Amino acid sequence: MNIDKLKKLGFVLFTVLFMLNTELQAANNTDPCVQASREATSLARTYQRSVRELKGTCTREGDCDLAKLAADEALDNLSLFHGEMKENCGTTTPPPEPPPSPNLAGDIIINEVMMDPDGYPEEEWIEIYNPTSTDFDLNGISFVSAGDTLFTISQSLIIPAQGFILIGKSMNTVINGGIVPDYIDTFSLYDLGVIYELKNGTTILDEVNLWGFNVSRGTSANLDPRSADAINNDILTNWCLGTSIYGIGGQTGNLGTPGSINDLCF
Ligand SMILES: [Ca+2]
Ligand SMILES: [Ca+2]
Hints:
By secondary structure, the protein is of the alpha+beta class.
């Protein structure tokens, strides 16, 4: 075989490979399933990256709005593409599952506290509210009072979207003021307003400073329900004394709304 024949053969082989490659690329580029799958995978990576950023940097309330927005947007688009894939591509493999949502500042808040009940010490309670549209598992969440961790929840405890969890000290309604707690633990609250925090490890999910709040025995510290978010519960004037009678505790009955929507403050 001479050099010219070798050159011709090389040219033919090159042309065939080039055409094959072009056809393969064209097939890949026009297949809606392949495209949707790529988009979904890319969005899942974006979401995972945003979640990593949030977990790495977002340790204070209000610091992480942009990363949260990016994560939310990627997740929304991911759901959209997944829907398109199911519609257009039959049994196409679904995109990779994103990890569970990270715990973010403001996802749960301190909503009402009975710190000085008119009766037994077991009548103290803490109410947590979930202002978001997603259920939240309180497993691993700590409650901190004046810098001291009073307890850490060590079991799955779901607080529904826009729902409440009531944490008490006893299930016995004879001594707990007639409340029905969702969860009980061992703790003791000061009979005055202090700084309370909900934390996930070192991340503060919510903080309220009730220092200066005018506590009244047998009456809860009650956040106005129109201010039920992590920012507005920082404002002391959005808090007031509970006014609804509940349970059986104390000589005159305790006032507050344990486990349900709060009394209006103004
Ligand atoms: Ca707050
Ligand atoms: Ca309440």
